[in-house]
Amino acid sequence: MWYNKSMIKAVIFDIDGTLMDSFQANVDFYQRLMVAAGYKKPTKAEFKDGIWRTSWDEIKHLSRSDNDAELRRILLIGLSVPINESLYKKQKGIKAVLGGLKKRYRLGIVTNRSKESAKIALNFLGLKEMIRTVITSSDVLYGKPNPEGINLVLKKLKVNPQQAVFVGDSLSDAQAAAAAGVNFVTFGKRSLIKGGLKTNKFVDLPKLIATYEYLQ
């Protein structure tokens, strides 16, 4: 089926692993948090599958606890554990790419970060004014892979699923996109969906997004 060039109206991004490489910063944060909470320092091997969970789920995974009171205690301690922003890495060409996309599409973000954590990331990236529609784990009951966040950003951007492209790097991103019915581009070396579009070069995203305006 052929679509006209006005079909895609919005581009939605994940933050961690997509807009920036935050893996080392997040590993460092959770290692210090768990030690501060009285646990043994997690090894890097415990993060081998990446960090794509909500903070609650990540802490549950690392503490191996199902006790809600204990998980809340650790979360509260986390409020006083600073993130080492010097370990963050911006994607090459991010400002130019998003500046170009903003001229053609409505931009949004769906992240499993909390509202405050997302603010820190966007300030670091210098995107606070460029992307106004940001959905965090603080705005929904269920984070990705649940599609609630994507459904909410679609509503705020006033587009239907077929008019949006979601760019993410994790399986939870791909699963959320599929559940919401939006187009998906994998940011990484391996496509997360069969026959899906992928790239590990941020500057190539505009042309991949544009392909969804044509043959599907």
Q: Care to give the gist of this entry?
A:
It contains eight helices and eight strands, in the order ββαααβαβαβαβαββα. With 216 residues, it is an alpha/beta fold. Helix 2 (55-63) packs across helix 3 (68-78).
Description:
By secondary structure, the protein is of the alpha/beta class. It has 2 domains: 10-21 and 90-211, Rossmann fold (3-Layer(aba) Sandwich), CATH 3.40.50.1000; 23-85. It contains 8 helices and 8 strands; from the N terminus they run E-E-H-H-H-E-H-E-H-E-H-E-H-E-E-H. The chain has helices at residues 23-36, 55-63, 68-78, 94-102, 115-125, 148-157, 171-180, 205-211; strands at residues 10-13, 20-21, 89-90, 106-110, 133-135, 164-168, 183-187, 197-199. The strands form 2 sheets. A 6-stranded parallel sheet has the order 5-4-1-6-7-8, with helices on both faces. A two-stranded antiparallel sheet has the order 2-3. Helix 2 (55-63) packs across helix 3. The radius of gyration is 17 Å and the shape is globular. It starts with 9 loop residues before the first strand and ends in a 5-residue tail after the last helix. The model is unreliable at 1-6 (pLDDT under 50).
